[in-house]
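Class, look over these structure tokens:
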Amino acid sequence: MPATVLVLVETINDYLPILEHQGFHLILAPTPAERAEAISRHGARIDAVLTRGPLGLYTDEIAALPNLKIICVIGAGYEMVDLQAAADRGIAVTNGAGVNASSVADHAMALLLSLVRDVPRCDAAVRRGEWPKIMRPSLAGKHLGILGLGAVGMAIAKRAAAGFDMRVCYHNRQHRSDVPYDFCSTPTELARASDFLIVATPGGLGTKHLINRQVLDALGPKGFLVNIARASVVATADLITALEQRRIAGAALDVFDAEPQVPDALKVLSNVVLTPHVAGLSPEATQGTVELVGKNLVAFFAGQPVLTPIELPLPSVNVRVH
């Protein structure tokens, strides 16, 4: 009997035949209402869930899926998946770390260029029949700070250093001896050393509000911030105040705290570029991501190790793992 996969992700429909051709039965539930109905109606026969970090899978939902065996997360982040509940039930969790790194890195550089060169404002002016001569900084020779030097951070660093002659520094949980970039021991030190600061670290409690007022002040009035990671890494209130008071030069954001809601305070600022969490979306990245999900599912249901497992916490005390 084929395994049944509950698909909560809304952006991969064109590539779902990859999973169907591997023999999986899919239940599509991309909206909150469809999600609740699918879990209520089909919960007893769902073997796997396909989700992404911000959509997650919650404690009560896991409890309502008695036959759930594996959760596959698209992309690197899995911040809203209840890992403790999964561990308590012996449910495997995988992610798609690295698959969309090129797409995210491309978007990060596009945002940086748009922001620093003020492309949106120039475009709007020309459309109004204006012809402003706006003087903006160049990227060449500048210092780029990258918060989080994983697959995405590395892809950004390579583009910046090789393509734009930028000097790259980074802050990571651990110093990396395999890269030619300068290590900074704290986010504040990184910001102080940077003309431009790109956030590329996973979300979650361990990185919450790493970018706060102190870091933004270290970045300074000529510094620019780009976030293509998770909104939780940046203290939004501190960022808005810094932008309003011009304590930093500008920010480009692809992620927000309560998506799809975006604070009005950000929308009215002229020194901000906003995109709707699309950095990881490209045909190439989406196909690769779904292919990885398929490989993980096939391996798991064949009794083989999954390719990209997430390390789970220890099961809670007195919880029987089935």
Notes: The chain has a mean pLDDT of 96. The longest helix spans residues 283-301. The first strand starts at residue 4 and ends at 7.
